[in-house]
Fold this sequence. Notes:
By secondary structure, the protein is mostly helical. The protein has 25 helices and five strands. Helix 2 packs parallel to helix 7 and helix 2 runs antiparallel to helix 9. The two termini are about 30 Å apart.
Amino acid sequence: xxxxxxxxxxxxxxxxxxxxxxxxxxxxxxxxxxxxxxxxxxxxxxxxxxxxxxxxxxxxxxxxxxxxxxxxxxxxxxxxxxxxxxxxxxxxxxxxxxxxxxxxxxxxxxxxxxxxxxxxxxxxxxxxxxxxxxxxxxxxxxxxxxxxxxxxxxxxxxxxxxxxxxxxxxxxxxxxxxxxxxxxxxxxxxxxxxxxxxxxxxxxxxxxxxxxxxxxxxxxxxxxxxxxxxxxxxxxxxxxxxxxxxxxxxxxxxxxxxxxxxxxxxxxxxxxxxxxxxxxxxxxxxxxxxxxxxxxxxxxxxxxxxxxxxxxxxxxxxxxxxxxxxxxxxxxxxxxxxxxxxxxxxxxxxxxxxxxxxxxxxxxxxxxxxxxxxxxxxxxxxxxxxxxxxxxxxxxxxxxxxxxxxxxxxxxxxxxxxxxxxxxxxxxxxxxxxxxxxxxxxxxxxxxxxxxxxxxxxxxxxxxxxxxxxxxxxxxxxxxxxxxxxxxxxxxxxxxxxxxxxxxxxxxxxxxxxxxxxxxxxxxxxxxxxxxxxxxxxxxxxxxxxxxxxxxxxxxxxxxxxxxxxxxxxxxxxxxx
Length: 577
């Protein structure tokens, strides 16, 4: 984030309450812009529930894993491009115009998805929504930070992060609310256009960022806005601070080059910035490769992997994970300045690894104890409706529900007890209707399991471990780890690495579960998390309580963990190597 604003501490939140009570206009600015975070969170959460019903309406999507992954991940691909062009639009046309444009693109994308007659149209809509999300994700916090008093800036910027997790929770609530309506997924995806429309209307009546106006030479306009934000006796001091900040920024541009390629080259050729990028990119990539967005994008599907076949039940249980994620964001605000960035991330990674390993073991046990396949049950609906793979094998004695699902068929549970041997049937809409017509449960993503509730509990513990540490701290580290003149480009490079990692994880999750099983996939993420922990330990310094100049000095000397420093003759510690 431009300006390198850290997380707010408790004192800053108290001051924020006092200031906004006296000047409500400030909170109006922050909340109106912060709706961009709500859009971001809503889009992240809503697709997980909508995908369940999209698969029911389009058999092509139901049968092709890559198509499901593409529907989910194209929003991420759009966000990468949106974030990339968002920086140029911000500088060229201003923060306000960028937010308005993001709202228009997002609104159009939501309408396209809601009216989509075919899967490819949903994908187009997802790309448009992603473009809007990418632009809003970088512009909203920037606008808030530039239109807020410095003493409460961290607290107000934190509202954007809180609205992201709040948007995810809202998405799951709306998903659950629309489960009984005709056109379920269309309502889920289309309603996303409403907050974009609200933000567009609110932003029309709000001013441009005073910092951007000042840099464009519109000094009087910048002053008039500052007069609405600050007390009369503070305005002149803020104008002077703004003048000094903008002049310093222009000097930095002259030193590093205004061309983006020159800035990137300069960043990697500077040892201090390069070491900062090692740390910044490490935490952003690790944040994604612990598998968090498999939970955010596919949470109801994972719940179904655990044996809960009902879409409504899966959505209700997924609501727990999104709620815990929102709570974790609040916990992070309270503890990140007390216990430090590095310590929170390391503790978080230990919790994540433990949960993923146990979750893998639970899914492994569930697969071993999956209900058997009964030949009598399988032919009960007619031989031509039995799974083709099941009828073509010489011996079916070793087949269970999990074997059936791996053959791209579905399991129709026994009517009296779902843990008893059931039928392995071809996965079609008509056969699914026949199975449910007899009061049986249709399993297509996972098998009946007595371990299912334990898997949901572990997902909750995983979120509790992730959210206060790896969920929020990587963004704080990236706002503090770079020298001032390289903060924008350094944070941008790290953010792109985050989006690209997000795309890789979301685009491959379902394919991995087919190839490795749920147990193997979560164990793989545990392995990635362990590698991430090692890299964080060796590359990421503690920045809590340090001035930017102190961080720069630490990176200049080269960072090593405490146990890898050698003592000098005078008893002080020195970096090894």
